[in-house]
Queue: 2 jobs
Job 1
Amino acid sequence: MDGVGRKALRLRRLKPSGIRRMFASLRKVPDAISLTLGEPDFSPPEHVLQAFTEAKKQSHYTPNLGIPELREALSRKAKRDYGLSYDPENEIIVTVGGTEAIFLALFATVNPGDEVLIPDPGFVCYEPNVLFAGGTPVAVPLREENGFKHSVEEVRSLITDKSRVMILNFPNNPTGSTLSYDDAAELAKIAVEHDLIVVSDEVYEKILYDGMEHHCLATFPGMRERTIVINSFSKTYAMTGYRVGYAYGPEDLIQAMKLVHQYTAACVNGPAQYAALAALEGSQEPVREMVREFSRRRDLLYSRLNEIEGFECMLPKGAFYVFPNIKAFNMPSEELCDKFLYTAKVATVPGSAFGKYGEGYIRLSYATSYEKLEEALNRLEKASRELLPTS
Ligand SMILES: Cc1ncc(COP(=O)(O)O)c(C=O)c1O
């Protein structure tokens, strides 16, 4: 035995997610306020709940790509939101959340030894999925001084003749950063120049503040044919438990994803697909209402955190996370999160859970009520006074 036991060798570089570790610790402090969640604390809109109940008799397999009505509605969405045409017959796939779409996109395009550029800090699924596919993850630093966005020069310097895929995620988890039109255009230009496939994770596209606009990567010149756009009902419609995501892309890549999907998931839960259809076709006011509330909470966290000694926080323009710099505490983010949990009874996620460039930061989710956030901030303020090194 080589220390991996009966586990397959391909899993040897995989570690459990740092977020899960935090969840496990959270159980030991039952009255802690959790700012760890990556899911809205809202219920799905009423019409979604109703459509799910009405569809419960749909007890059979659906087509691998998803029910035609949902694919047609998604095709209309792409036209409406991005001005792009995707054929519902072969350029759209409905998946088990955005999570499965990410797996399929990488498994279907990455060859062993291919390099995949992944954002760091970045969503915890990217690196493991690159490894599943036999690829080599190459971390692209998203630096605070650059607004947690890619530096074009740095991306160029990391590209080699083995680079095949670039994963992008804006609005970004964990930093809340978003791309301007010009930022997105620059990244698109690099992808075209180097003939990269782009996996663009846009699950937070509707959770934007201060009038920011979303720029779908597939809309830039030369990008539609090389981009797999990943999206999900989880965040926009507070439907995390329904497990419905989707991807748009050129026919050859979507068909490659379908090949993997039909032998792994077969199809997405049928009633959940009808619920997703209702979400798309029904009123979008609940989404706007949710975003207004997120915006109020973001303002609270941003202003209060910046008043607390030890935290320096950038104003996030999207998603529902703040990612303050905690370097003043002079300890690793994991240790600081443990201290906040056990002394302040506030659970947060260490930046290191999102990659090595996440060290020096922690992630706080504001998918928690305003009142709980206020209480959490009071507790953090008190604990910080005790934890800061005395000069
Ligand atoms: C950036 C990003 N992409 C994808 C997902 C996957 O979400 P789901 O599988 O629920 O659609 C998440 C969830 O946290 C996320 O933060």
Note: The chain has a mean pLDDT of 95.
Job 2
Amino acid sequence: MIKTVFSASLPIDEKLIIQKNQIQGAFPGKRLCIVTGTHGDELEGQYVCFLLSEFLNKNTDKICGTIDIYPAVNPLGIDSITRGMPGFDLDMNRIFPGAKDTSLSDYAAYSIVEDIKTADYAVDIHASNIFLREIPQARINVDSASALTGLAEMLNIDLIWIHPAATVLESTLAHTLNSLGVKTIVIETGVGMRITPVYGQRLFNGIINLMHKTGMWLGKAPENISKPIIAATDAVSFVNAVDSGIFLPEKEYGVMLKKGDKIGQIVKPLSGEILSEVFSPDDGLLMTIRAYPVVYEGSLLARVIHNS
Ligand SMILES: [Zn+2]
């Protein structure tokens, strides 16, 4: 059932409406929220929401509990290909928990939190930006690692990246929900402004697996769930451009590399020169690869998680 979470009039006869699809199982159980579209230029979650809505609507007889799917937390951003909320010049994932009776954006954030805060679990799906491709991963801060790692492992992802507490932004939706007792996993996957179907399918299977493991899904359990690498920030090596030019990758993200393997090269189209070759700094998993070809000295080209 489609429900309105927040509605407000805009100046010229238009409306800002945030909606969700609430799928009620035939049996009582836990409540899971799938949230995406906080950043309007990250679209990987749209496909996951479509797959879940389509599948779960047809299978309510196998569901214990409630699934709420929020495909567009920031609909104005999605409509205008903008990361933040257009017109407000702000990143929507920096204003949570929001507040009532203040600005439109704060009130929208507040209403989303109010709607989700009684859930048991939430999955907040983000994509990378247009510059980088990322393997499917969960990003968890070290303070909540013990509470969330087990849940993140169910999601059929390749990596759980544990961040130090100092980098935690308290104004994110995920931090707000976790502090209210909703176990919330942030997923980062794919590339900005595009959909990577194979990763969407994997997350769909991962979410059904999470439902199965938490007693919300009575149907068949998905098979071949991937076991993610769990890595701290110091296990990740960054590869940056040493020249400005056009980056031509030679490896697919998600592959295992040996130290010294060639990842790609930076070339100069005007003269036909190869400016520099790019090599893996470690043995490990290529978790990130540059998607946008134009690079400047210092641009991030790749991230490799080295084997511990
Ligand atoms: Zn994002």
Note: The mean pLDDT is 95.
